Amino acid sequence: MPRILITTGDAAEDLEVLYPYQRLLEEGYEVDIAAPTVKQLQFVVHDFVASFDTYTEKLGHSWPADVALADVNPADYAAVVIPGGRAPEFLRLDPDFQRIIKWFFARNKPIAHICHAVTALTPLGVLKGRRTAAWPACRPDVQLAGGTFVDAEAVVDGNMVSARAWNDQPAWMRAFVELLREQAPVKG
Q1: Are 54 and 21 in contact (CB under 8 A)?
Q2: Which CDD domains does the entry mention (predicted)?
């Protein structure tokens, strides 16, 4: 059975971790959550308040990491998912996260990212010439990285499937699962 890796950490967007985790399990994949260390992670929920100019942050679910990023052999996985939230802002500095993500891009393996996850990709040079969705406030980051920002619920650019935020997840996961069925089908 193919394995899928979710790379995340504390302050990841709750729904952007748990929705793909459960959807991929439902599809028949084994799924591991990798973080800087093996521990109980604390996710957050970003939501909107009518009088605020931006979103607010509240505590979400906690969930255990299965494996430390340093211990991940990317060759053991068919694909990688990168959730958004605030976790990407510190994951992008992690050399093991960088190693893992560059490995998937170099081999044209399926990659799904959503919302602020794009900020973890921009310093890696993997978005140059690519089309990607992200949270609209990340448009300048995408453009500075040489990518083309697309304001859509599911953007497929070769092996990469992206979305703006958690409310796009049905279309995002539908497109990603379609890619996985082609490139890493579940046998059985």
Answers
A1: no
A2: GATase1_PfpI_1
Please identify, in words, the CATH class of the domain defined by 3-183: alpha beta
| Residue 53 to residue 122: CA distance in whole angstroms | 25
**Residue 167, CA atoms < 13 Å, CB-side half-sphere:** 5
Whole-number Å distance between alpha carbons of 176 and 154: 9
Contact residues for 59 (Cβ-Cβ < 8 A; gap 6+): 42, 44, 45
pLDDT by residue (tens digit) across 32-88? 999 999 999 999 998 888 888 888 889 999 999 999 999 999 999 999 999 999 999
Are 117 and 83 spatial neighbours (Cβ–Cβ below 8 Å)?
Answer: yes
Each domain of the chain, given as residue ranges in start order, spans 3-183
Q: Are 186 and 1 in contact (CB under 8 A)?
A: yes
DSSP state of 75: G
Q: Is the pLDDT of residue 112 over 90?
A: yes
Residue type, 121: L
Half-sphere CA count of 5, side-chain side, radius 13 A = 26
- Is-catalytic flag, 116? yes
Give per-residue pLDDT as tens, 13-38: 999 999 999 999 999 999 999 999 99
